[in-house]
Amino acid sequence: MPKMKISRLLFLAGYARNPAGWRDELVATTTEEGVVPAVAQTLWRQAEEALRLGLLHGYRQRDESSTALRGRIRLADQLRRRFDQPLPMEIQYDDFTPDIAENRVLLAAVEHMLTVPGVDEVSSARLRALRGRFEGVQFPRPGAQPPKWTPDRLNERYHTVLELAEVILRTRSPEHSPGTLGINGFMFNLETIFEDFVTGSIARALGSRAEGWPSTPYKSHLDKRNQVPIKLDLVWNHRDRPVAAVDAKYKGKPNNDNLFQMLSYCTALDLRQGHLVYARGAEPLKTYEVKHGGIELFVHAVDLTAPRRTLLESIDQIADRITAHLPAAHGPEAGATPPSVS
Question: Topology of 191-324 in CATH?
Fold first, then answer.
């Protein structure tokens, strides 16, 4: 059984990536309809808002053969291809066009949503209308990776919808090996979303409470010969060394194996505190002080069905607990800007 409703799933997915840009009013659906209609509704509503002022344009470098000079001549290509012929010319120029990465990513997400079964009629009609507005934008090739885009001031109105579009494109159904079953759709990995939410929100909370910066994820080794790898969801660093570890556990319940694993990580990294965060009900904090080791292990429970304010308060409480056990000063450095979390 799922541990959360559709509306909470969308909140966690959005908050882990961009808490300021996620707006509840864009999701006009009931939680019983399923994730496909909910995401379709969100996509076309955010896309219509982003395109309210028209398609975003930008400059793209183009190489062409032409009888008219535009930009500059590519001399090496001209000599190699034309030898002593003056026309056509091999030219290179910057074209101001809507065929840019931002529009390609958004068009790919719209096109993909139109192939997914279960989208409601209103969303299908809105998505088809949106597709018709991408005149001059190259349609995505099947199986091709979406282009990379960089957030900046010029594409600011696209930020929210592009982040949703990337979520849709990254979580489409896998087709890793030959077989007879082809699945056309997308899937949210709830374990990944929970881990991203926990690590991202705790890292932000620590950034306003303590000196240092987060590593998400953190990779190291258990032994001196680097034969046993370590991967933690979040490690907080201070003065060039790790000082606290956090591992999110969406599945299962607290058990000794997880405690032993966290203890070994703390020992290898010379940490005094390790925190396990489970997706469970409103269970009290459990603390374990390890004999002879000077290490404390904390087991936290996050109730994903709680009201949003309560959910975020539980994250703040975890950050407070981590800060209280840090070995250094707890306040941020004067004039320092809290590190951003990707």
Answer: Trna Endonuclease; Chain: A, domain 1 (3.40.1350)
